Amino acid sequence: MTEPAEGVPGRVLALDIGSVRVGAALSDPRRLIAQGLDVWPVSGREGSWRQRFEACLEEYDPTLVLVGMPARTNETGGPEARRITALVEELKAAHPEREFATWDERFTTVIAQRALLEANVSRKGRRGRVDKVAAALILQSWLENQRI
Questions:
Q1: What predicted TM-score, i.e. pTM, was given to this entire model?
Q2: Got the DSSP string for 43-103?
Q3: 12 to each of 32, 75, 80, 122, 127, how far by Cα in Å?
Q4: Are 25 and 136 in contact (CB under 8 A)?
Q5: Residue 57 CB-density burial (10 A; 0-12 exposed, 13-18 middle, 19+ buried)
Q6: Are the beta carbons of 100 and 64 closer than 8 angstroms?
Q7: Which residue, among 97, 94, 110, 144, has the nearest Cα to 16 in the 3D structure?
């Protein structure tokens, strides 16, 4: 892992981990803008999302991995939150040289669906993009919060 240039915080890789697909987004090195990166199947003939995650770590060398944390509207976590918490702990153990954090992902999928609907993206097209857009929304929300 290379250190970012002095005064540049380094990229953030954000993940929206679902049961079927994982959306990925990446920030620029100065952490100003989030951009949807890809959608990975949780499992499939092309391998698991973890293989693509590892390739992303290698290619983009993010200084932080941000994982969307599902929370209920009453601020409690359910089974999905426990699953994500365990997964983040597993990723931390596998990558002790990296920083990991979680961020509230409530409503990001709904917002992403609406944005794609308004852009007249077909139902089939939405299915393939919504997780990437949701990951970008999670990341952009976190980036904006860091500037406050």
A1: 0.81
A2: SSTT--HHHHHHHHHHHH--SEEEEEE---TTS---HHHHHHHHHHHHHHHH-TTSEEEEE
A3: 10, 25, 23, 30, 24
A4: yes
A5: middle
A6: yes
A7: 110
- Using DSSP's 3-state secondary structure scheme, residue 148 falls into coil
For the segment 35-85, what is each residue's pLDDT rounded down to a tens digit? 999 999 888 766 689 999 999 999 999 999 999 988 766 666 678 889 999
| Token pair in block for residue 86 | 């365990």
Q: How far apart are CA 60 and CA 79, in angstroms?
A: 31
Tell me which fold the domain 12-147 belongs to: Nucleotidyltransferase; domain 5 (3.30.420)
Q: Is residue 60 classed exposed, middle or buried when 0-12, 13-18 and 19+ CB atoms within 10 A define those classes? A: middle
The full set of domain ranges for the chain reads: 12-147
